[in-house]
Design brief:
5% strand, two-stranded antiparallel sheet, 6 helices, 2 domains, single chain, DNA Binding (I), subunit A, mainly alpha
Length: 148
């Protein structure tokens, strides 16, 4: 057996021990060990729900260009149920990242304002809390416009 193959086998064995310990830790902490993928059937249901348009900007999408976005991010406890899923273009999905819907709205409002180079959502909220009010343009998501 070559030294390289032996090294690979030792590393793989050590990695398996580490992963097993990590999975045990997650189980004890009450976390899911397996990432739950969104089925193709559910993706198509979201595609139909959003009428093949980005829920945030309204851009027309194909199944190949569409991203599935969690309205309430998984990192904040959101699930994979259809009510929590929206269709998004790559630009909106990337910009939204793990923001909740109102943080993303604030981000979009700041981007449309004259203050986009000098203010963040956190700073805007801090100023509001201190009684300094900065008017930002209203931003309505495409999915909200289509409900009207």
């Amino acid at each position: 057996m070559s030294a390289r193959l032996l090294l690979v086998m030792v590393c793989a064995s050590a990695m398996n021990v580490y992963l097993s310990a990590w999975k045990l830790f997650l189980r004890r902490a009450g976390e899911s060990v397996m990432a739950k993928k969104i089925s193709n059937l559910k993706k198509m249901a979201v595609f139909e729900k959003c009428a093949a348009r980005c829920a945030y900007c309204g851009k027309s999408l194909s199944p190949q260009t569409a991203h599935i976005d969690h309205i309430h991010p998984k990192s904040l406890g959101g699930g994979n149920d259809i009510a929590n899923l929206n269709l998004a273009c790559v630009q909106c999905n990337t910009a939204k990242s793990d923001k909740d819907i109102e943080d993303f709205r604030l981000f979009k409002m700041i981007q449309l304002s004259e203050f986009k180079e000098v203010i963040t959502g956190r700073l805007w909220r801090e100023l509001q809390d201190r009684g300094v009010f900065i008017n930002l343009p209203v931003y309505t998501f495409h999915f909200e416009e289509s409900m009207i």
